[in-house]
Every structure is written in structure tokens, then in C-alpha cells.
Amino acid sequence: MPKDLLTELKVRAAKPESRSYKLSDGGGLFLLVKPNGSKLWRWKYRIDGKENLYAIGPYPDVGLSDARTERDSARQLVKQGIHPSHDRQEIKRRNIETLEERKRAMESSFAKVSAAYLAEVKASYKPGSYRAKESRIRKYLAPKLAEIPISEIGVKEIRPVLEACKAHGAWAGIHVKGDLNAIFEYAIVRGLADANPIPTLRGLLKIPPSQSKAVLTAEQTRAFYRELRAYRGYPETALCLRLIALTACRPGEAADAEWNEFDFEEQVWRRPGEKMKAGRDHVCPLSDQAIQVIEDLRPITEGGRYLFPHRSGKGFTTPNRLSYAMRDMNLGPRTTPHCWRTTFSTWANEQGFRPDAIERQLAHVESNKVRATYNKAILLSQRREMMQAWADYLSAAEEAAVNTSESASKPTSKKIGARARRAG
User: What does pTM read for this prediction?
Assistant: First the structure.
């Protein structure tokens, strides 16, 4: 049978009539012209002796040349005993499956899964711990893994991320690895991933040997107050460091302290359990010197929620800002605001204060569970006496520092506070 009988001009010029009619192009291909003006390409073929009709598509969406190409492709399928319409349906089904798979992959991307994980565990973490976890995921993991389906993330993708964390310190990578492990466990339980690749990375990161916190010597304590007087950073940062020293609190506890936690009549600082590491309410007696620090702070920040707000106006200051300020004082290796806790504990024990009172002041949890069950005393009167004696000791150290022959401002003092200001 002759082929290619039609031309583009003939197809375009075909007019509708009262009844449908065909314009043959040969080889079984024809154009069906309907009374409503539509023009449809059809191809007639046989399989197993039975005549079948394959709908190629409408004109002009499918031009004459495309219709012939589709006819030739369909003929190859028929030679294999495949109906072209069945093949088209199979291709369509596969395309739909591909799209659905792609959609599922997007819904199970690391960004989606990690966000769902964070929402799931938020209530079980203290605010500070949760913010640290969320910050690590956003800072270290999201930039590299966000768009990848979690089921496709393996050692190849994770290793360079953890290696990069080493630049931020050994513990940064260890914490991030722990976050990843928790996210994968979350995904496996929900059928979003089949395996957790984290255990196979055992040994990639080494936990650094633990180092006890430094205890400040009497000379370092005097140096601290000399440098604090020469401090050129934000005044609230210097006041925060003073409050940490006077109360032996954790730096994070001072950083997120709120005005409504302070009772000035009773001279106590009451922190709710949800903000404490041990998960229980903590009452800290305030010495006269600690009260004075807060009074000095009033004209600076009293109008807000936090004693030490973040410079951006959102939330509270960061412990890093305090660490930078104290590190710039060059007091010695491993000296951070947290050192005041070990320094206070050492001093109080040397002075013969009751160990239970010291541990309660530090908000430590009793290791003996039986003893912890019965020992509910907060020993406030003993601790009030102890903290006033500690404050007097620090005041004497500051007075001695001022009276020494050393210059009140070292060359490095002008630089103190630059890093703290950058930390916010």
C-alpha cells in the first residue's frame, strides 16, 4: 500500500462535512475529520488476525510528520505482539509512579524529616538544649543534606559533613553525629528509611579526653577584677560575669535569667525546674554584692524580659559571648565563666562549709538515690551565710587588685570585649 499520500496543506485545508470522513496517508495511517471540525490521527493495524485502531492524537497538536513517526514506532511494537495503546498506558503508569516516587522523596527529604523530628522531641528537651540541637542541625547538616531523601543518605554523604565539623571542635562533630543518629532512628520507625548508617562510622570521631575545669587562684581572681574594671565591651556583659562569680551559677543560667525570677525582698533568685539541668526548681540566695549587680543592671535592661538580652533584641545573650570576654582577659589556659563553679566549690570546702549546702548551691543532683529521696532540704539559711562570705571574699580580692601597683589597664585591655561584642 502506498504511503505518504497526504501533505500538510491537504490536512490543514480539510473541511468538516455532515458526516465523519477519512483522509488516508497509507500504511494504515489516516486523518479522521469529524463534523464538529476536529481532526484526529488514527492508525489501523492487526494483531493475531484481529483489526485494531490506535489513537495517535489530534491535529494540529500532532502534525503530519509526528503522526508518521508515531505510526512507524507503533508498527515496531506490533511486530513484537504489543498493542501500542497498551504500551502508552504502561509508559503513563511508569511516569505517574516516577512522579509519585519523586513526591515521596521530597516529603522524606532530610529537611522535612529533621523538622518533623525536632517537632517531635521539642517537649522532652529543656529550652537551651533544644535550641542547641536545632542550631546544630541548621548550621552543620541542612546546608549539605536538606534536599536529599533521607533513604538516600549514606556514609558517602555523611562523612564529609562530620569531617567538616572538626574545624569547629571535636565535640561539635560528636554532637552532630548524635543528632544524625537520632534523626535516622526516627525515620526508620516511620518507614522513611531502611537503615541507619551512623553505627558504621564508629571510630571516625574521637571523644577528647576529659579535663577538669580550672580553679582560679587568688592571683587569677584579682587579675579577673583588674581586667573587668578595664573592660571595654558592653556593660551588661561585665555585670553578667560578676553575677556568675557571685552566685556560682552555670553561664547559661545567667544568660537566660529573667527579671521575674528575682525576689528582692527575700534576696533570692528562683529558677524553675524546666530551665535547670537537673530538672528541679532551684533557689539561689543573693548576697548584698549580687543585689548591687542587679541594681546596676536596672537602668540598662530592666524594661525587657531578660536581665541580659541579646543585642539583636531577640532572646537572651549567648554563653559564648561571656566565654569570649573572659578568654580575652588572658587569665590562663581553660579559664571560662564556668570556672567560677569549681573555684567556689574549692573555696567553700576549704572554709569548712557544709558539703550538702555547697552541692545544693551548685544545683547538683544527689548521686545516692536513697539519700536523694529523703534529702529535700534546700539549706537556705546555711547557703545564705556561705554566699555572703563568698561575696565578701571576692570583694576583698577586687579591692586588693585595685590597690596593687599594677596598671589598671594592660595593653590587652583595650581589645577586651571585641569578640564578646561580635558574639551578640
Answer: 0.55
